[in-house]
Design a protein that fits this description.
mainly alpha; Four Helix Bundle (Hemerythrin (Met), subunit A); 7 helices
């Protein structure tokens, strides 16, 4: 891994912390424990905001540059881009499901748990493919001009990794920050 792909890899590590929390709370829902639905929805909503505003724009730029430079990876890049879209839809759907569950004491625990665990699995698989295949291919195939453009996007003011440095996260989700082990001074 080089400095060129370090941010995306670090993002995936931090994302993994949030997925661990979401997955553990989903398992609690399934076993009938008192659900932390608001916390789960907070994680999902945070992920939606962060993925859409911070991570995916950079990832999409890497994919677009990789598509132009490494045509032999067309099928993998296309599948990865489609999966990004499907993940976004699943996150929005899960957020709505969690919002409705908070209003209904008789909500379908299995539906909530299954949706959350499926999302966790999909995102983990997506990040694994990216880290194992797409980022190494990008390291090899992209040239200096490509990386200057991408690095410029990485230095966008306000760009940050999930779990640290986000005021909303640190103030509203201190419990989550502690559980995720983000080591933020606000946790």
């Amino acid at each position: 891994m080089s400095i060129r792909t370090e941010r995306l890899t670090r993002d995936h590590e931090n994302l993994g912390r949030l997925l661990l929390v979401l997955g553990s709370h989903a398992a609690r829902v399934r076993t009938g424990e008192e659900p932390a639905l608001l916390l789960m929805q907070g994680v999902v909503d945070y992920l939606i905001d962060w993925v859409e505003g911070e991570h995916d724009p950079v990832e999409q730029l890497v994919l677009a540059r990789l598509e132009r430079r490494a045509r032999w990876l067309h099928a993998l890049v296309l599948a990865h881009a489609r999966e990004l879209h499907e993940i976004r839809l699943s996150m929005v759907e899960l957020s709505g499901l969690l919002a409705r569950a908070q209003l209904d004491p008789l909500f379908d625990r299995d539906e909530v748990a299954s949706a959350a665990l499926a999302l966790v699995t999909t995102i983990r698989r997506h990040a694994l493919v990216e880290d194992a295949e797409l980022l190494p291919a990008a390291e090899h195939a992209l040239d200096g001009e490509d990386w200057r453009s991408i690095e410029s996007a990485l230095r966008t003011p306000g760009a940050r990794a999930p779990t640290c440095g986000d005021e909303r996260f640190e103030t509203e989700f201190r419990e989550l920050a502690a559980e995720a082990g983000c080591n933020c001074e606000y946790a």
